[in-house]
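Re-run requested by the PI after the first attempt was lost when the workstation crashed. Everything re-entered from the original request form. Ligand of interest: flavin mononucleotide.
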Amino acid sequence: MAKTGIFYGPEKGSVDRVAHYIAKEFGEGKVDLISVNDKEPTLMEQYDKIIIGVSTVGMTNWNSDHLANDWDMFSKGLSEVNLKGKDVAIFSLGDQVTYPEHFVDALGWMADKLEPLGANIVGHVDPEDYDFDESEGFRDGIFLGLPVDEDTEPEKSEERVKAWVNLLTTKFGF
Ligand SMILES: Cc1cc2nc3c(=O)[nH]c(=O)nc-3n(C[C@H](O)[C@H](O)[C@H](O)COP(=O)(O)O)c2cc1C
């Protein structure tokens, strides 16, 4: 069986909560939940299938030199990681009402960091269920991963997670 790890950050907010929903949906003991806080990115190489969880909080934070959030720190060592041939699925928390022009941009930022390492980005999601104007996570008519909006549509998170985990397990062997 494929070894699957959910790498998520930051802790204690919506990403953390949704990472736990996803793990629960896979079933007890089926996936490892890893907060990226204080972890080395090379840890990802130990997994056959990888899920990445991130929130979108603006490009300024993301690229800052100061260690603003867990992903900033983790990303610093990313260029040394080899993800050749590995399936990687990304979910991002966002808010489509307050940030309709930047909804879940982090899906795109993440894909752009991971693809050069050899990752095969899977788990694309149809935009039909969302109401947004623009997103860097939206390319060729589809989201590069799963958008989750706990700020304005928390009631939809469970069904979104269920459908996505079903896609990952049935189509991509997670
Ligand atoms: C300062 C700030 C900037 C944000 N910028 C965006 C954004 O550009 N696009 C978006 O979709 N959501 C944006 N959001 C909403 C967050 O992504 C959302 O609240 C998310 O659930 C936070 O997850 P967390 O609690 O795990 O960090 C922003 C939130 C904050 C506080």
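Saved to the shared folder this time. The beta strands are 4-8, 31-35, 49-55, 87-93, 120-122, 138-139, 142-143, 146-148.
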